[in-house]
């Protein structure tokens, strides 16, 4: 079978997201460490973590409806330019020793609000750029996910820890530069046809149509429920991970960055083998297997006696997540109509992100009431239970039927 090359425009999108993801990785390590430097209260740390998920709870579906109305390329570059300007505020506060938990929480909230619009627009833009070809979408998402994992997880966290040693404002300024570069690259992307306008419909009605499309389709609902329940588990872990690493594993800031790097290394491997797993097992079975691996890996993290075992567990979990984040979005982009893509993507992401604050506060509460390992055991149990519930919703049979139904739409898009 002849391999079709990805278009030149994808290379610029890949570069933009890679640069931005490197900055995200720097901030991903720096924000919890900045918060831990201000307080050791698990609930206060949970506030910072949860703030980064609230925009999806408040604006998720409406954001998708707006993206389906707006020019998607313009939405991406304007959003990244705004996030670059935003980060100057906490960087200045850090330079003048004025950082606080409320300021960190506010920064996390606004960065996530920008992420809502950028990620939704990028998700809707990609299938139009690639003419909704399932094979190209899988290849493109594997490259995007691999680069994101390598930069935001592998290179970014150690860089964030190292830059933090130079000054509290340095990692924040580095992320601001990455957003500015991303905005410039995205602005140069080729234009793609916009979906047919639906100006006569209200924004709320359009948002409701997108949400209804997800909830009425068992395959799309299953694809949405996996990250929703998964985010409860992963945020419970993330909320206490920095404290767990410090107090139970005996590692400092650099060691914490290396633990995140171990997870990213696994994620890079998972993204690389995702297509192979999909071909060998079928996309539905592959998604069930990767979800099971994630749950077992978090169970191993909870029982880890030292940092080496914890790093291995995080690497295995990252591999499962990396493969999942290639297979799931690629399938969704291949089967959802273009005019609904923004709303379906935002609805699915909203379900995942709305669940995340519960995970953050669950992690903080369990750690306060019991022990730092308790949130990790609870997270593992949730992941394994979720896998059992959604296995039939995302079966190979359902996947093949959905791809067959979407084939005429892909042919029509390629012809335009």
Description:
It comes from [Actinomadura] parvosata subsp. kistnae. It is a multi-pass membrane protein. The chain has 416 residues and is an all-alpha fold. The chain has one domain: MFS general substrate transporter like domains (Growth Hormone, Chain: A, Up-down Bundle), CATH 1.20.1250.20. Helix content is 84%, strand content 0%. The chain contains 16 helices and no strands. Helix 10 runs parallel beside helix 14. It starts with 7 loop residues before the first helix and ends with a helix. 60% of the residues are buried.
Layout of strands and helices, then pairs:
Blueprint: H1 8-38, H2 42-51, H3 54-69, H4 72-86, H5 88-95, H6 101-129, H7 134-166, H8 170-187, H9 203-216, H10 218-247, H11 253-281, H12 283-302, H13 307-335, H14 341-369, H15 374-390, H16 396-415
Helix pairs in contact: 1-2, 1-6, 1-7, 1-8, 2-6, 2-10, 2-14, 3-6, 3-9, 3-14, 4-6, 4-8, 6-14, 7-11, 7-13, 9-10, 9-14, 10-14, 10-15, 11-12, 11-13, 12-13, 12-15
